[in-house]
UniProtKB/TrEMBL annotation:
The keyword rRNA-binding does not apply. Pfam families: 2-oxoacid_dh (PF00198), Biotin_lipoyl (PF00364), E3_binding (PF02817). Its cofactor is (R)-lipoate. PROSITE patterns: BIOTINYL_LIPOYL (PS50968), LIPOYL (PS00189), PSBD (PS51826). Belongs to the 2-oxoacid dehydrogenase family. Keywords: Acyltransferase, Lipoyl, Pyruvate, Transferase. It comes from the Bacteria. It is an enzyme of class 2 (transferase). GO terms for cellular component: cytoplasm. Residues 6-81 form the Lipoyl-binding domain. It comes from Amycolatopsis xylanica. This is Dihydrolipoamide acetyltransferase component of pyruvate dehydrogenase complex.
């Protein structure tokens, strides 16, 4: 450790071209003594929610900003008196800051030894600011569920638990579009503005798909349909593309995105090189990304770079939807709920498990024949899954 002449820790480059971050929750308070690589604040960028580690050790003299405030990259985040900085090279997840990979692994190992539960948060782990806020509002921290890592109670949890309803006389409630929600809104608007999309759909007998799912546990239904979509993109590669100026760029690798609903809004985690994964591996990757999305721990890299997206809106109890393409991709496959319906099999009317599949596609990259061919291929795989696999 060496003394550092710079007492201010500036908001670091968070990667992916991000220029600002929203303060979600301070993990420390003025007067706290911190160590190198200690997380000091949770911020939400346009891509993900991350904890920012300090490159300095010392005593915090100033916190620059309040929860809910946006800070630009390169502006002061905290001021540290009697600051000391690590002599080792950075290895942390934020560009230009952090300690070695060895120290980072050790720190994470120590945390995992004694995980914090949501029902019995440890006062030494919870931010002093959060403890003070809970005290002011008369809230027992042991009685609320924490949304932070290992169930740690954050400021947003206290505010949510003690929020007062909006007075009826106002007649309205305003929700700021910021962070991930604003990014999603901007992308959807850009998609509608720039992409001339069309939609095709088909009803499909998913009875054998349900049987295959039961036989292939723990492979998920979403993973099976994702596998069929990847196979379909080999036959119809125009749908795994994007428009760049006056050119259509057809991509060899399938970076598969899938829509996931979280407390922070809709996000699209990406499984890279899905074409190289076996079905069980694809299922495991989707499950891991889904859990990380709900915990708010996805990195910016895991939320960008998709080439084709799947949206399982059937989990919301609906049959069909004209989904909006995830710009700048060329298509999105939608999956409706699987329900019992009358269906003719071999000339006889019976009851089968039926699902509606939809495909919204960029009409600049292909015509209806290509889009219909892809959707029919996926539908045939759903009806004969073992043959397809």
């Amino acid at each position: 450790m060496t003394r550092c002449a710079v007492p201010d820790f500036l908001l670091p480059d968070l990667g992916e071209g991000l220029t600002e971050a929203l303060i979600v929750n301070w993990l420390v308070d003025v007067g706290d003594t911190i160590t190198v690589d200690q997380p000091v604040v949770e911020v939400e960028t346009a891509k993900a929610s991350v904890e920012v580690p300090s490159p300095f050790a010392g005593v915090i003299s100033t916190l620059h900003g309040q929860p809910g405030q946006s800070l630009a990259v390169g502006t002061p985040l905290i001021s540290v008196s009697d600051a000391k900085k690590s002599e080792e090279d950075s290895g942390n997840v934020l560009i230009g800051y952090g300690t070695s990979a060895t120290k980072r692994r050790n720190r994470r190992a120590r945390v995992s030894v004694a995980p914090v539960t949501a029902r019995a948060p440890k006062p030494g782990v919870i931010s002093p600011l959060v403890r003070q806020l809970a005290k002011e509002r008369g809230l027992d921290l042991t009685r609320i569920d924490g949304s932070g890592p290992h169930g740690i109670v954050r400021r947003v949890d206290v505010e949510r638990a003690t929020a007062k309803p909006v007075a009826a006389k106002t007649g309205e409630r305003r929700i700021p579009l910021k962070g991930i929600r604003k990014t999603v809104a901007d992308k959807l608007t850009q998609s509608r503005r720039e992409i001339p999309e069309a939609t095709v759909w088909v009803d499909v007998d998913a009875t054998r798909l349900m049987e295959a799912r039961a036989a292939l546990k723990p492979v998920s239904l979403l993973a099976l349909i994702a596998r069929f979509a990847v196979l379909g993109l080999r036959k119809f590669p125009e749908l795994n593309s994007r428009v760049d100026g006056d050119e259509i760029v057809v991509l060899d690798d399938v970076h598969l995105g899938f829509a996931a609903q979280t407390d922070r809004g809709l996000v699209v985690p990406v499984v890279r090189d899905a074409q190289a994964l076996a079905t069980p591996e694809l299922s495991e990757a989707i499950a891991e990304r889904t859990n990380a999305a709900r915990q708010g721990s996805l990195t910016p890299a895991e939320l960008t770079g998709g080439t084709f997206t799947i949206n399982n809106y059937g989990v919301f109890g609906v049959d069909g939807s004209a989904a909006i393409i995830n710009h700048p991709e060329a298509a999105i496959l939608g999956i409706g709920r699987i329900i019992d319906r009358p269906w003719v099999v071999g000339g006889q009317l019976g009851v089968r498990k039926v699902c509606e599949l939809t495909l919204a596609f960029d009409h600049r990259v292909c015509d209806g024949g290509t889009a219909g061919g892809f959707l029919r291929f996926v539908a045939d795989c759903v009806e004969e899954p073992l043959k397809a696999l």
